[in-house]
Write a structure and sequence with these properties.
The chain has 412 residues and is an alpha/beta fold. It folds into three domains: 1-65; 68-121; 161-411, Rossmann fold (3-Layer(aba) Sandwich), CATH 3.40.50.150. It is built from 14 helices and twelve strands. A hairpin with a 7-residue loop joins strand 2 and strand 3 (152-158). It starts with a helix and ends in a 5-residue tail after the last helix.
Length: 412
Amino acid sequence: MVFMITFSQFFLPALLLGTFGPVAARMALCHMSSVGATMGSMSAWGTAGALVGTLAPGFWLISACGAKGLLTGVIFLLAVSGLVFGPGRVVHVLWVLAMAAGVFFASGGMGDVAYPCRLVFQESSNDVIAADSRYQFIRVYDDDSPEGTGRRVRVLMLDNLFHGYVDLQSPGRLEYGYERMYRDVACKFHGGRGQVSAFFIGGGSYSFPRWVLNQWPGSNVVVAEIDPMVVEAAHSALGLAADTPIRTLVMDARNATDGLSASEHFDFVFGDAFNDFSIPSHLTTVEFAWQIKDHLTTNGAYLVNVVDEYRSGLMVASLTSTLRQVFKHVYVFCTGVKGVKNKRDTFVIAASDTSRDMSLWLPGHTTAFCGSLLTEDNLKELDRKCGGRVLTDDDAPVENLMAPVLRTSSDY
């Protein structure tokens, strides 16, 4: 299905665009005497154009214009080129006008003539932000609380994943189920220490960093967030104060961890950098887990969440197996109070050298905990599914491990 969709959309345009090179080469040869110099020059300019076309979108054009804006710009340039240089210009003009009319009316028609570009590029009238960064599509909009409380919240979506909910009237309120699991597990490890030191791998909506500051005032909170536009969105649309005590390192989390001083230790490290089905493989490996452990206090804990399906379970199983190589105690939680189900879920893994009694959260418990602990039988089943795989810097095929989840993504 993926092949057929891609083929139907790209084959004909790629075929037609591929005709430029031979035609240009023939025209050049008609005006040049040296075949070798002519073909070498053509090849050099083609390579230079390919380099610019590869680097400019990734480092500048996509974040400046957005993916849709960039695509529209290319279409516009091709249309103008055809009008100026191509034969059969009357047919070309009619075709371009028909396509432009189709885009216009599909985007809202005459409902808002004054803002055709906004209609084309805006996802919804509720959007506060809708923009492409260098890394992902960022969307912030207003909606009702997913908990059915009747409260209005700001929703952060990164690509296709709901990444955070923020109540602007109460920024420390946790709306996401896995964040409430983070909260309860963190309190279990906290042990009444008062202020804590916490390092966050990924900032997102900054909901949980703000909860930490609200729960334990005066805490040292450091966030490593690779995407500067996510940080900007948190400040401009998600209520993160400009003078927040949260220290943000705008860089890849592994680079940020490498840059920490040897004496800097944290009570908690929270991993929340996995976006939809795109998982940074270098943040899943045993080498990275050892780096995290080197910056944890004696009783510190590393909490990380991952989206997976228990019926396949390859990603959560491999990550659990990997963390068991580094930490003495590893606990895995699902969002179902009655236990794990054979469907997509957000799992929370807690790893530490200090044990905690989690027996009150076994499946079927009657506590306020919004999830449940996977049993030893569940963990053995996961280990069997992944064959005890340990992810390393040399072998972390996260795309293959997440493939079963991607194949069933349309079911949710």
